[in-house]
Amino acid sequence: MTPLTSTPEWQALHSDRAAIEDQSIAALFADDPDRFTDFSITVDGLLLDYSKQPISRAVREQLLAVARARNVAAQRDAMLTGQRINRSEDRAVLHTALRVPAGAPGWADATIARDVTATRSRMAELATAIRERQRTGATGKPIEHVINIGIGGSDLGPRLVLEALAPLSDGPRVHFVANIDGVELQQAMAACDPERTLVLVVSKSFGTVETMANAHEAMAWLRRCVPADDVLARQVLAVTANLDSVRALGLDPDLALPMRDWVGGRYSLWSAVGFSIMLGLGPAAFEALLDGAHVMDRHFAEAPLESNMPVMLGLVSVLNATLLGRRSQAVVPYTERLGRLSAYLQQLLMESNGKSVDTDGDAVSLSTAAAVWGQTGTPGQHAFFQALHQGTDVVPVDFVGVARPVAGEKGDPLELTAHLFAQGQALMQGRWGEGLSAMQRCPGNRPSNTLLLRALDARRLGSLIALYEHRAFVEAAVWGINAFDQFGVELGKGLAADLKPIIAGGLEPAGLDGSTAGLIARYRHWRG
Ligand SMILES: O=P(O)(O)OC[C@H]1O[C@](O)(CO)[C@@H](O)[C@@H]1O
């Protein structure tokens, strides 16, 4: 893979780096009254406004030239058509196939489409039977609670969606359990009647320590509390790509909902991993979520690069993170319902693109993924916004707003929206003028994107999530890295397994580094 820095297109952009950094965003508006129209893109009720970035028309052309030089369109097509683009794991990457409506033309082959439709139908039948109380728990009581046990991609997506659309929930109440310390599981078990609870064990690998530990605990609870021999068969359901391990846990693999190896964990909420969404909101809402994502997929596949929302969002990110060295990025949704968004995007963007070698294994020549963080507005305004306005580092912000709240939600987002728009304006304009002390002045010229959803509903949420998935793809394509493996996460998992018996006191801490040995000694001492 040619290093990005060796391409003439990047070199041309880089030679203008200082000018771009100094570019007054306000001046770009003054020079071009139509700038908002030209630097915003709308796809089916989702608007991206990237006009408050230091990007002139000429700079946009340079960015697009970089995208062409990196074959972003060809790389996209290779993903969509099921080529094995995840080279380090020799896998195709087909989360987009999960969102093609049944019978509609997709990009991948027909076998995959049939498999996707079959799983979706099975999920819908089962969810309907549970929601309509035809399929009960082992003692004949209806399922009113679901405990979703999973972590990372087997947790964050369904959690985000169910929190966002909670007012639409008319099915069993879903409780999420990810951490291994037992806190969430204890809380969930305390809130659930075991005879009316379905436990979902969601794990692509079915080997993740946290998930397996929590699954054992929850299964023991069901066995203890439900007087029926077939309680596990009736009330525990595995969602996985590893059916052999389902058997090892004592569950029937024939009952499990399958995942495929061509779906990465952090791209999997559209698969059977989203079963808890279907249970909570119903199959129609799940379909709407998929439809919204598919609309974004089609747009990504078909729109010219310059009016392609994920392409432009990805290029803006590369400009900030790589060209201008802005190593962190805030995501601030202006609705409490999207409070999980920054955590979701942390995994999506940082696990995908926190890489320092390219697809050939050579060191990349420039910085890749920036740190992603944030919380909702307006609480975030009273926490970290001071640093956004006056701190020494420029932190690009993605604002996310909704024109209409989720159906059934009380409260009007107008007040919040005023804050949202005001913050973007304030970051750009700053505050200057006679009579202001140095402490009172705000430098301004700080970039932001604004994403505005016509309404917070399943369809727009699907589009929004798919947009960020494709942004990660575009960034990776430009950087020349593989967005679909995550070997870095494995290292700590292995070390934790080695350390556990030492910390527990069964093994002596031989050969450890001084810090780890010291920490273990102190922990043991304080634990008593
Ligand atoms: O679904 P699994 O296999 O339990 O993995 C959970 C998560 O662990 C990771 O492998 C690493 O955090 C993620 O990519 C994945 O979403």
TrEMBL record:
A single GO BP: gluconeogenesis
Known function: Catalyzes the reversible isomerization of glucose-6-phosphate to fructose-6-phosphate.
Lineage of the organism: Bacteria, Pseudomonadati, Pseudomonadota, Gammaproteobacteria, Chromatiales
Organism expressing this protein natively: Spiribacter curvatus
Domain of life: Bacteria
Compartment(s) of residence: Cytoplasm
Protein name (database record): Glucose-6-phosphate isomerase
Active site: 351 (proton donor), 382, 493
The protein's enzyme class: isomerase
GO cellular component: a single term: cytosol
Gene: pgi
